[in-house]
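Protein 1 of 2
SEQ + STRUCT:
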Amino acid sequence: MEEFERWMIKHERTYPNNSEKERRFGIFRTRFESIELFNTQQEGKTSSFKKGINMFSDMTAEEFLSIYASCQNDDPSKYISSFGVDSTYDVAKDDYADIPPVSIDWRDENLVTPVKNQGHCGSCWAFAAVAAVEGSMAWNYGINTSLSEQQILDCSGNADGCKGGFTVAAFDYVIRNGGLNSEENYGYVAKQGTCDSSKTDEHLGRITGYKKVPPNEYDLAKAVAWQPIPVSISVGAGFQDYQGGILRGGCSYNPYKNKHTVLIVGYGGLKIITRTTG
């Protein structure tokens, strides 16, 4: 219990009553024991992947996936039609470097804002889209400003909000609105609210279009060599307990289930990914 109490203080976690606290402690204890066993079994192996206690350690696997792996929960061609975007939007082929460099890291070029925290809201789709807009603004105009994910949640017309969405729907809103306000002026509250129209006319981040990258690593590398790129990845059980190293695993059979949207900010042998969960 002492370990759990320290964890609660570190992560500023509170519960409505003792019964819920006991339930969460039971989940935490089971996860703690499982992590200890896994790391012990990994000793002496070549894998660098390591599990550890983190901000998700009082959540069940079902709770974790429902929040952080719900960013693509349906066929996007069905979803995007309500936003007036043709699902056959252009596929990027020749816009990027013909031969991608051996390695690149846009963090070194100041094209990436600090990692943010989406909280208990399935808004990774909005975070990844906004991060891509931030990277585009930094690359094209030398402006490195943290933009508003909350504006996307409140104003894009995505009724699901914290239950998942698509980056292209977020891009479409940015284009239709003429841009995004800053995070400072339209702050994140980790829940969908009513659009504050008094804050939507200030445009600190703009894009004029977007394209889909062909689904292969070579074209993805060419795109990332141009700017940071949002992608959806399959999320398995290992993500919840991730502490460090390289997590290897297969892809989900269902392309629209258990997806988390992230931003690829570089590569060099292995892709470098910045997460939105903080």
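Protein 2 of 2
SEQ + STRUCT:
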Amino acid sequence: MIFIIVLFGLISIVLSVLLFRKFQSLKYPSIICFTYTLISLLLIFMLGKVEKVNLVDLINDREPKIAKNNEQSTGPNGTIVKIKEQVLIDAPIIKQFPELPRGCEVTSLAMLLQYKEISVDKMELATKVEKSTVPFKKENGYFYWGDPNDGFIGDMYSYENRGYGVYHKPIRKLAEQYLPKKIVDLTGSEFSELQIYLSLGNPVWVITNTTFRKLPETAFEKWNTPNGNVKITYKEHSVLITGYDNQTIYFNDPIDGVKNKGVKKDDFLEAWKQMGSQAITYLP
């Protein structure tokens, strides 16, 4: 269709020149030719709209080189992105230990931001991430504590004190301090949405669990928070997804410092969905 639009434009220009020569003896030859040219341009614009052609992307040739069974999706800013069959991104690996025993979320965010060439480390992020001030208490068999959607729960720096972690909302707010108007919260999306950004070369921060497979219900408990009940597991974990293929999800794991660790795709996705499909990345 793009070829047809370009061809139609060239034909219009040629016909405009010919019409000018043919009618130059008339009183208003330029008006006639200008009117024809304007109509031609309007037709080209309408054709482009019908096909949703993104002229900026055509000029910049931003279409990925590898396609997955001709599958394509609409990416950021309306860009047509062909989802790659396999991706493996060379993002920096950072260990959370020994400084941040419960700091997997900010450590994985540090990897994401450093890959984007933002000069920041895990300790700075640990200081800046929002913290919950709701105290823990157990009363009549019920647990009362803060909401990880509001801020980090408990002690990030030591296992000697009670602690948990933090979810995507405070991490998104923190990331936006370093990449304003560039952070994309993909929480609740299908994995195919994450594949769009991974195909563009952007790693993705996610929440999963330390086993990287679906947990039994016995691994969870409920807290009463100011926002209502929250279902949590102490196996909660955060990693940076760096790639995938047909069988495997690859990620940087801040617990053991393994770069591009591979886990069976189906297992990883079940664990990720069980934790609410939380995911954050940035615009290209």
